[in-house]
Amino acid sequence: MHIGIIGITKSGKTTVYSALIRSAATQATGQMNLGVAKVVDPRLDRLTAIFKPKRQVYAEVRYVDIPGAPEGLGKSQGIGGEYLNALQRTDALLHVVRAFTDPAVPHINGSVDPYRDVTAMDMELAFSDLAIIERRFKRLEADLKGAKPQEREHAKKETALLERLRDGLASDVPIRQQDVSAEEHKTISNYQFLTAKPLFIIFNIGEEQLPQATRLEEEMHKRLAKPSVQLAALCGKLETELGQMTPEEEGEFRASMGAGESAAARVIRLSYELVGLVSFFTVGDDECRAWTIPLGTSAVKAAGQIHSDIERGFIRAELVAYNDFLKAGSLPNARRQGLLRLEGKTYTVKDGDIINFLFNV
Ligand SMILES: Nc1nc2c(ncn2[C@@H]2O[C@H](COP(=O)(O)OP(=O)(O)OP(=O)(O)O)[C@@H](O)[C@H]2O)c(=O)[nH]1
Ligand SMILES: [Mg+2]
Q1: Domain total of the chain
Q2: What is the distance in A from the centroid of ligand 1 to the CA of 15?
Q3: 12 CA to middle of ligand 1, Å?
Q4: Which of 253, 341, 251, 347 is nearest to 299 (CA)?
Q5: Euclidean distance between CA atoms 298 and 319, whole angstroms
Q6: Distance from residue 15's CA to the centre of ligand 2 (Å)
Q7: Quick check: CB of 95 below 6 Å from ligand 1?
Q8: Which of 83, 147, 257, 291 is the residue whose CA sits 20 to 30 A from 41?
């Protein structure tokens, strides 16, 4: 599971990436940066304060800083399309939009206009999807010649679906906002359409814009809010600098700057939600840990996240919801109050479940 960072050249992609992974990254020409960000979770901090384990392990999100294709996205397919391939492998896209002004870093279009850049990128992503659809039409046409009746049926169905997606794209509706059934989703999942991926739009603002950040985000929500689209404003440069400090120093600095809660931490948490991930916890003297699973994961699959042996030898999941645990105050109390329950293989794990897997190998 990883999120690809995209945007026009000098929008601050590498800067935002550095802020998210809390490490000052540079970028060799044409190279991608791959890094891991911790999902700071106050619930896990609370559990750690209660259990006082030797180790605390946060959930993680991976980000890929993909260098900008200078001549634009759609056109880059002509030059080998590694850029497109890299984008297609991602699970979501994070679009860093230039909102800061700095005469030392000229905007390639001459002026700073974040909403213009959002529209331009949306069009490029749509353009890339349209090209994939056109190529597929040609293949389907060829396949139809001499196809058996059943194959013909399939090809016709797919052609109709792709025509619908194409018409939607032509009227500016990204695939993520189009009506696609679960079955149709399966058909198109191989194509890795870029406008089908969840999208996070980040306005990379300058330090001097920080006092307006909230107002800016409200405006973003008015103008850009859509299903499977997440929005935030963040000062990449400042967040990167703060990310190099110890948590104590960072806290003091944020207070003195009026920079509020960590915008980077918030973006990471929102990315996690955007791609449909939730956390369950394991607790103990040794380790308190947040584990990552897709929303809707069964108990037995969740066990497999920890170890394949636990999945194979799964007997039961002994669990308590985070809020119930807090109410009870301890695991023995939770047990006495009937809040600690046993669930089987098919139980759907909820965000915040504290689980002890019983297994036998
Ligand atoms: N003043 C100011 N400068 C910034 C900010 N964010 C990034 N920059 C500067 O803008 C320049 C480009 O930033 P990068 O993060 O390298 O941008 P990029 O999108 O990765 O650039 P490419 O990979 O070359 O496309 C650097 O000199 C950054 O220091 C900001 O919030 N304010
Ligand atoms: Mg870069």
Answers
A1: 1
A2: 6
A3: 4
A4: 347
A5: 13
A6: 7
A7: no
A8: 257
Give the distance (Å) from ligand 1 centre to CA of residue 129: 28
* Residue 9 in contact with ligand 1 by CB distance below 6 A: yes
Q: What's the average model confidence in pLDDT over 30-37? A: 90
Separation between Cα atoms, residue 284 and residue 354, nearest integer Å:
11
Longest Cα pair distance anywhere in the chain, in angstroms?
A: 73
Indicate if ligand 1 lies below 6 Å from the C-beta of 100.
yes
Ligand of minimum distance to the alpha carbon of 33: 2
Q: What is the pLDDT of residues 70-95, one digit of tens each?
A: 555 545 444 347 788 889 999 999 99
Residue 319 domain flag: yes
- Report d(CA 79, CA 223) in Å as an integer: 34
Using a 6 Å cutoff on CB, does residue 105 contact ligand 1?
A: yes
**Per the domain annotation, does 350 fall within a domain?**
yes
CATH of the domain at 320: 3.10.20.30
Instruction: Give domain status of residue 165, yes or no.
Output: no
| pTM of the predicted model as reported, rounded to 2 decimal places | 0.91
Tens-place pLDDT, residues 312-360: 999 999 999 999 999 999 999 999 999 999 999 999 999 999 999 999 9
Q: What angle do CA 68, 70, 75 make, to 5 degrees?
A: 100
Domain that residue 324 falls in: 296-359
Of the listed ligands, the closest to the CA of 24 is 1
Q: Is 237 in the pocket of ligand 1 (CB under 6 A)?
A: yes
Q: Whose CA is nearest to atom 1 of ligand 1?
A: 102
Q: How far apart are CA 294 and CA 30, in angstroms?
A: 32
Å from CA of 236 to ligand 1 middle: 8
Cα–Cα–Cα angle for 253, 256, 257, rounded to 5 degrees = 85
Tens digit of each residue's pLDDT (9 = 90 or more) over 249-308? 988 888 887 767 788 999 999 999 999 999 999 999 999 999 999 999 999 999 999 999
